[in-house]
Amino acid sequence: MEALDFARDSWEEDEEPGLGHLHRSTSLQTLFTPLALTQPFLQLPLFLLRERERESMGKVMESENQEFPAEMASDDFSDTQLIYHVRAALASVTHEDGDRENYDELVGYLHPKKIHNPDEIALLVTTLKALSGAASYIDSAHHEALLFAVSRMSLWNYGTDVMDALLELIISLASSNGKYIDWCLEMLVKNFVPPYFDILKHENGLVKKNKVLSRVHAALKDIADLVPLAPLRLSPIVVQRMPSVFSKEPEIVVYVENMLKLESGAIGEIVSSTMLPALVDRLIELDVEIGSDGLLQEDAKGMFEMELEDDAEDNDEKYDSMTPSELLFRKSLQGNLVVEKLDSLMVLTFLHLESCQNSGRLAEVFNVLLGSFKRTVLNAYKSKFTQFVMFYACALDPEECGLKFATVLLEMFVSDVNPSSTRMSAVAYLASYLSRAKFLSAALVSNILQRLVGWCFDYCKSHDYDMNPRAHQVFYSGCQAMMYILCFRLRSLMDIPRLKLQLNKNMPIESILKHKLSPLKVCLPTIVEEFLKQAKAAQLFMTSESFIFNDLLESDLSRAFGGNDRLDMFFPFDPCLLKKSESYLKPHFVRWSKVKTTYDDDNDEFSDSGSDVSDDDFDDRNADDMMDDDLVVSVEGLDFNRMSITPKFTGMPAIIRPSTNPKSL
After folding, report:
1. In terms of pTM, does the model score above 0.85?
2. Strand-strand pairing, 12-13 and 20-21
3. In 3D, which of 573, 585, 579 has the Cα closest to residue 646?
4. Distance (Å) of CA 452 to CA 11, 119, 502, 555, 597
5. Which of 53, 458, 578, 596 is the most buried (most CB within 10 A)?
6. To 5 degrees, how large is the angle CA 284–CA 290–CA 296?
7. Considering only CA atoms, which of 75, 143, 73 is closest in space to residue 103?
8. What tens digit of pLDDT does each residue of 524-543 get?
């Protein structure tokens, strides 16, 4: 009974009721010390006890004694003897007339069941370790029942000793025969998430999670070391088992945590090119789901609002920079389960990017994300939030990632190899990025802008045609991007003498706008109007044309060049309204209310509610000057001091059906 007493003394209560484990120092030989035959079920498999009973009673035939190693005659079972008996049990079912009794007992010990005492745990650990030693004898053709029983075992249901024994068996199987690689990898990936999430709600739920997942990833590393091609097999398995957009938030969040841990782990160099694109694809699916499930579409004009910087009715510091329309839209997102999942995954991705920056891997990871962006995100016009993964990566490393993103977008626009829609989308991203990224220097913006203006000027020289929105979509999108950037950045460029000179001498903007293609008549009136107003105040150029907009956000001409996807109204980096994600982006993001325009008084105090100058003051001070100059712009119904030149919620439907979950963002 010494072995039984030792096992009981060694047993420690696991973090979950009813589960236990033995100290790691407990050896197979100690566990298998024979017990009194009156208690055969406590630690030894029954077929081994029957074997011991036959030996002790002298009923073992001479031929059988010769079949086993000499040490079988001793009083104790050694590890080698135990493994030998398990091999015999496995071999017994490979013959049609074989005795299946021992094999069936062996399989029975593996079927998941609630374990109540340390003796049952010791028996399970013993069985798993013995199978590990006999892994090369396991044949899927004959031992399907055994493999099925093992596949139903979850690490989350056991203590650490059973976990370690089960993982030892999985690693042994993977290294013993190549045909088990996928089965073993799927077994490990299955344990990325618990079988039921009540486990994580327990007092020691986080401890249990760390114990399981640390062992799973260590096992994946061990298999990769033993089988170098295993990581290539792992990537598609992880992607295929990824929870769908309809899964519950805890499930998909924990699973993505494991994907990102793989990406940054020992085999990350191999799996990174698969993990990150798969994550971006899932973000896009969730993003688009927000726009198609539970949303009521309105007519195009009703989907947009001016970003009026009224005083926020909500005095909460978190919302004091938001316009009433933004607050209204955020309230419509509250309780939407898809939105909450997307927000949580975005934050998880942001934290991963921060980790990559700290470890010096951000540039490498950014290249993978950039490839995924070009393949998936760039032309997903219904995407409203996923693109901020790229924005945040650039914010963490403006000098390398930030510059590269702007350069790639510009190159995609100027390359006539790309489809028109791709070029228009690229320049819309470029304009929105250069306008909203607080971390980009004025010099960088000026250099990119000069190349954009140069392309538009060259286009004018080679296309001596009259205005035609549909025939020259790419040109008009470039002109609109140019004006959009200057609405946000003109003041900062004019305040630096070197950049002001570059703008006046090296950028023939006036020639472009006066061309027969008439971009001022085709581009969005709200952008043209704000641009001309700032250009006049900065004395950038003068034009003899008059434009009467009458408070138009868009026109028939802008709709024509924008096409069915309304790329004339595509501003991908408009404010992000996901509650948790926005807190990460806010320090790096330029809101229109914070922009100093060329017509602003230097003594004005800028706040999230815009300029302190009233509508009447603006009209009284500027009306005469505007009529005297050659530039005439009608301002009926528009408050320039408080307007945003960005149509709000681009592509965003107006109403989201409330979710049954009342939890807010």
Report:
1. no
2. antiparallel
3. 573
4. 72, 75, 14, 24, 21
5. 578
6. 140
7. 143
8. 988 998 999 999 899 887 65
